[in-house]
Amino acid sequence: MSGFAYYNGEFYPLDGLSIPITNRAFYFGDAVYEVFLGVGEAVYQCEEHISRLFSNLRKLSIPLLYNKEEITALISHTMKKSGIGESLVYLQVSRCAKERRHSALNTAHDLLITVSPYSLKPSEERISLITHDDLRYYYCDIKTVNLLPSVIASTEAEKAKADEAVLHRGDTVTECAHSNIAILKGNRLLTHPANNLILPGITRKNLLKACVKERVPFEERPFTVSEMMEADEIIVTSTTRAGRLVGKIDGKSVGGRATDCGESLCKILYEQFAQFKQQNLTL
Amino acid sequence: MSGFAYYNGEFYPLDGLSIPITNRAFYFGDAVYEVFLGVGEAVYQCEEHISRLFSNLRKLSIPLLYNKEEITALISHTMKKSGIGESLVYLQVSRCAKERRHSALNTAHDLLITVSPYSLKPSEERISLITHDDLRYYYCDIKTVNLLPSVIASTEAEKAKADEAVLHRGDTVTECAHSNIAILKGNRLLTHPANNLILPGITRKNLLKACVKERVPFEERPFTVSEMMEADEIIVTSTTRAGRLVGKIDGKSVGGRATDCGESLCKILYEQFAQFKQQNLTL
Questions:
Q1: Inter-chain contact A26–B22, Cβ cutoff 8 Å?
Q2: Which residues of chain A have pLDDT under 50?
């Protein structure tokens, strides 16, 4: 894994980095994380990510020794030291304990930041999805590394040569294995409410703001698998891929009936980042 | 953490052991594990544990380079090298990959075995539980390290000075955060069926065998929180604690109405291990 890392006060090449077995992510998945897009020393939508990180730390009662300003400065410092121009920044806060025991009382915590080369490109081709049962837990609003159900669904997607798996609890579409999802129907955008069944994605929020800009009415309400299959367009959003239109689900052609609107929304998501990149890429 | 470890072909003191960040347990909880009781070089109920391990590896399509005999020999060898008489053996198989990506296709895997001093004692005092919503995923039959909901429930239990948390999906009791649970009512034992909502515990199976021995009819069917609160006895089972009777749930006195029967069943579970220990403790 090429890249650069900060771990508990020291800097390392990412390749060859080892983590003490006292890290409870290893035994329990007891960790929260964030993924950022970076340009030079600047993090795209830093405040939103850091705010979500701190909210998740609070939900799991993980005390972090840094405040928001300090952690932001530390991320920037790590990015600077990495010397990487455009990057993907991964941050993970785990709890640590000498003994393997379930309770998290009286544990310490550790902090990992990794910086790897990554360049967000505008999406040109429509992507394909498979549908998969959403068999996850009921803490989906917290960005933790308890990600095995997403691993299982993503593996099935890759086996089927698809790009992502769209998850449904019963008949209700929630989100994708590692993205949010929205549909356009009758020039109206629908996406699952940001409750404990989905991750409140930052690009999902950007999409809703893009709707305001484009005067597309939107509603945060659950929709069904059938509604999705018959939607005018289906938009998948994530930090690392911005917005992408869907062309196939389970091998069937979908969407393509509101292409102008779908493409405009995706374009806004990409251009917002491109503008940020323009402002910060000095390396 | 005092103890001894095998990791990917090498032996180490457990204290100070580090794991490469390419281990996907760290990013995704992409690992299965087993916990065994050990005496000298012998593992208690080894065949049952190894059989469950291989079943879980199959469920997640993790190929292990060893067959059952080889892994058993490796565990024994690690126990022997540890020089620890009575032990807790922890085994974890994780998937590994250079890049952090959700899909598990084209990943390698690694193997950790740790041996720590541990001595199973007969349970003398009744334990106390708290009730907690079962917010876990729907892969509870697979023993994976996606254990954050159990961490949350166990932490709440410890905060309340209780020994364990009993989980319920809606009104249905499933199991505890890291144990199975059964109730006695009218000289009949009830425990949740071994489906995807609970871990098929090996001590749970021993308990059902003990019922046969003690001529206690049993039924594998879900029971409710109210049925549990009004049960004659409540029995919590796990590898590391054998069988324990419950005295309190959420601060209310429970059970105590079929003490002879409950104690007999727990005694059988402990004595079965004690006999094994007698046969194997030569150190």
A1: no
A2: none
